[in-house]
User: Fold this.
Amino acid sequence: MTGFLIAIIAFAALSLVFGALLGLAALRFKVEEDPLVEQVDAILPQTQCGQCGYPGCRPYAEAIANGDEINKCPPGGEATIQKLADLTGREAKPLDAAHGEEDVKKVAFIREAECIGCTKCIQACPVDAILGASKMMHTVIADECTGCDLCVEPCPVDCIEMRPVKQTTDNWKWDLKAIPVRVID
Amino acid sequence: MSFKLAASPHQRIPTRTSKLMFTVALAALPGIAAQYWFFGAGVFWQLLLAIATAVASEALILKIRGKEIASTLADNSAMLTGVLLAISLPPLAPWWLVVIGTAFAIIMVKQLYGGLGYNLFNPAMAAYVMLLISFPLQMTSWHPATGFGAHGYGFIDAAYLIFTGFSSEGFSLAQILSGIDGVTTATPLDHFKTSLTQGYTSSEIIANNPQGMLAGIGWDWVNLAYLASGIYLLQQKVIRWHIPVGVLGGLFVAALVSFLLSPDNTATPIFHLFSGAAMLGAFFIATDPVSASTTVKGRLIFGGLIGLLVYLIRTHGGYPDGMAFAVLLANMCVPLIDYYTQPRTYGHSEETPLEDGKGESS
Amino acid sequence: METTLNLVKLGKLWDFPGGIHPPVRKSISTSHPIKRLPLPDHLYLPLKQHVGRGGQLLVAVGDHVLKGQALSSGEQGALPIHAPTSGKVEAISDYPSAHPSALPETTLVLRPDGEEHWCERNPIDTPLQQPKSVLIEKIATSGIAGLGGAGFPASRKLDGAPESLEFLIINGAECEPYISCDDMLMREHAEELATGIELLVHILNPAMVLVGIEDDKPEAIEAMAKATEGLNVLVKAIPTKYPSGGEKQLIQLLTGREVPTGGLPYQCGVVMHNIGTTYAIKRAICDGEPLLERVVTVTGEAVEQPGNYWAHFGTPVRHLLEHAGYKSKHGRRIIMGGPMMGFTLPHANIPLVKISNCILVPSEQELPMAGQEMPCIRCGQCAEACPASLLPQQLYWYSAHKELEKAREYKLFDCIECGACAYVCPSEIPLVHYYRRAKSELRQQDAEALKSDRAKQRFEARNERLEQAKLEREARHREAVAKRQAAVANRGSQNQGAQEAVAAAMARVKAQQSDQPPAAIIDEQGNLQPDNQAAIEARAKRKEEAAKRRAEKAAAKAKQMEAESPTSDSLASAKDPRKAAVAAAVARAKAKAEAKKAQSAETPDEETSVTEPSPEPSADTPDVDPRKAAVAAAVARAKAKAEAKKAQGAETPDNEASVAKPSSEPSADTTDVDPRKAAVAAAVARAKAKAEQKRREAAESTSDQTEQEPKTQPAPAPVANENAADAKKAAIAAAVAKAKQKAMERQAAAKSEDSSEEDA
Assistant:
């Protein structure tokens, strides 16, 4: 009986000591990390396009932190899903087709001759990438456009189109097979 | 006309993987000849059998995996695996042993890991270990080395023995193995080990037995032949010096230290270097690039580790020789070795593994 | 520092790890002195010929320019380009560039007049008495970029150098096989090079000047040693080993130092200039000649007269090859640059630029094409060849398997792309190609990360602004209420009560007016999110529609066929091509609308009612002035859109009739009014349309059937009286068609949603 008691006391004492040690270590070596929402938000492409069904990237980040699926972001595509999977430790699923498909990067373009200066697109743009005033022609700051296409719908005269980003020598990705080999002679 | 596009560089050395593999296989010829001389024609049949099995299993698995067969077979890697396994096996091992071993090496160890370049373990050695564990009797049945023609069986007889277990004259394999005088069935390493346990000192063992000049009849010649081949491979720049030097150095240093500590209980370093699979392992097995370490420093460590392990297994392990085990164990350490032996990159201040490289750009 | 200088003085050479010894084959092109090419028919001058951005154009098409005249200005890191000869600017357009991708870039096409009229040259007569800023300025305005390969602006190297520089290194190593342009330059122009070195010494004031030349160029070493006698210059013969001519490697060879990763050479006390650059600097300062030409090695077994040529920038490669006796049978590749780092050209019309040091046309036996790529056997030969002590096979592994961050961790960006690893690879893996792809991919990822950061900032700033606006508005409301209460308290009589009511109403109106623009978003949504709720809903709708569409695909197809039949009629009736095009556009739009409608499963009689009016606009399209046309188009579109919205709301028939009328009126008026009036009219139309639409949204739904008829009427109205055909006509017709189509689509969407709801 005493042996039994000693065993119990010994284990209790040990667990107390180790518990205290662990607790101490947790305090001592605490790693300051961003909350999950911030980390998820940093991975999302910040197009604010709402294709995920949430009104912006941050709401979707919050939803992911609360357990929503990670495959609802078409602008981010596979790369973003992979990163989210790595971060959250969930399985990387293919992009949910219900929210759209991964597309080439596009930016909005206003056909300026047709613009009537209604400012509707300016109000729709989540990142203030459209310049213009009432009854004046508007234009898109291509460098700031995230390609969310939210400005296309509100335009009363349909003068906004999404154009693929032009390939230049700066963003060329060494795709030798894509070079048209011209026939000479 | 149109012009072709290609990625730079447009100039390349003419040496190809297939040629490298072929050169290694070819370089094993002197050793094979020595084996033929001292252990009979068995090795010839084993080679034939192993190469045929290796190529056939590679073709089969490639077909199943839906890959192109001809171009992959042309890299000669399957053939080389067959050669290396065949020369490691006892010369009169039964045919099914060779077939099982080779098929295992190609299918399980190489192709199921993704084919050439993807296997973690040396296929020939993994198969050897598998056979050794599964069929210990057949795998340790080396018969004593004698001179050419003195084995009691001929060229055709060897085939009979391998395929049926009996020579054409009706002798069983066991009879052949027990030799003409019926005395010894053990390899020098084996013999040495058992004698030690019987209380002999190493000098007594060597004095009592008709050993060769270095490590036992035949074995020293076989090892010398592989040493010569290895030097040829080095000269041809097919292999680099780091791994062989590591293996032999590790073995030599370990043997020397314990020999100096207790000369009565251990064999001489020279005995260790020229017995068993030491030279074959150092130049032909451990230098398999796929499963070896890739950094210069890592290769020295990798080789040294193999040498040390071989010595430990020979002296303290349950098996007389330990090359196969040592290579496999070292293979397992490769990722770790590679990680910690990265060279200092130009423009970086000190030798730091990866973390340092994080976040750097252009 | 002192010790390094002393060691160098004592003749010590260091070594760099790795390196390879490819066959050099330089003697092919060094048997003759440098020749001069005749002028080609056209010179193609890309604005951007170096690392960085291109300058601003200074000339226009049709201008006559003189030799040496600046064609673009260099600002903010850009370098100017100059006319290599006198002639006329024939075009400024996109033209394939001297880049591995051959993607078109802005290029100036110059037609030489053969006169070679120089513009005014301004040589600096006593350069060694001038302050160094004057010389640097001259070098910058002469457009001198590094002629060794990378094309870094030379003036920036001089500008950024520290006061107490230890080494000035002149790079004459030229380690790439085949190339001999620097070799020949040193043999023939050693004196000028010595002057160039003097100028550089004057600018930089280094403790020591080194000229590094590979020991396989004894003539060049001798010539340089002779020319620099008496100057404080050490000509160093270095062992021939590729890539000893790489900037980082040559620094390591000559000084034992390393450029810190991501840094520039002056951070370890070194500034390096290429032989060609040094010569160009001498020409710019002493002769006043900007950078117009360079020595190019044309070599390879497929040319009959390999050698070095003085060639103007902009000379098409084809011209060079013709003069070097190109045997078209043999050459299957044209390589710009050397065999190790050069790139293949898709065709021979690529112009020569500042960084083009060699045109290599090898025969198939000489440099065989790479065979089939085999698996990596981790042989480690690449690691031994790498001059930067990287682990090429690990980089390959991560690059090929798209683990780009891992590749970055293995120091991918320290790779100098010299190609030594791929040269020795027995498995013929194009390693450098993998690295380049991974690098460009990573660069893009970084750029995107930066962009998304900025987008986030902008998004948050916007939200903040909207929040602020909302708060201000609320504050105003409160103020107004307070005012009213104060008024009530102050004045008790009836009269005053009425006045107060008026004032309150005024205040309300004011408040309403003041918050009009942002209200569009905030009031409707009730929160501060961007106004994409509607878009989300629209997407949801589209999704449902898509599902529906798939289910009824077969039926839709059949209907589409039906709908297409009238289009052929309208096509046949149209006579001139423009009309035909318009008709076709209209027909297409119609067909699409039909298809959509068909998909939403409607009755056939509705279809026919729609198809009728559409051909009208195309048949008698207007001859209006552009502005009017634009207005008309805008009105039409606005109207159509309003209709569409209306259709979505599914209203009563009498309401629709009233809409159709007013909206068609202003457009009919526009035919004779001035632009201002037109704009007003358009605005009125839009406002009306919007008002209508709002009203509809409020109204109850009754029937779907009747709304079809009026909807299609307004479109033809604005264009009814016109006859002749011009460009605008087409645009208008297209716009009309588009608007109609959009209306149809919406309607269809609404319908399908209705029906799907019913289904559910």
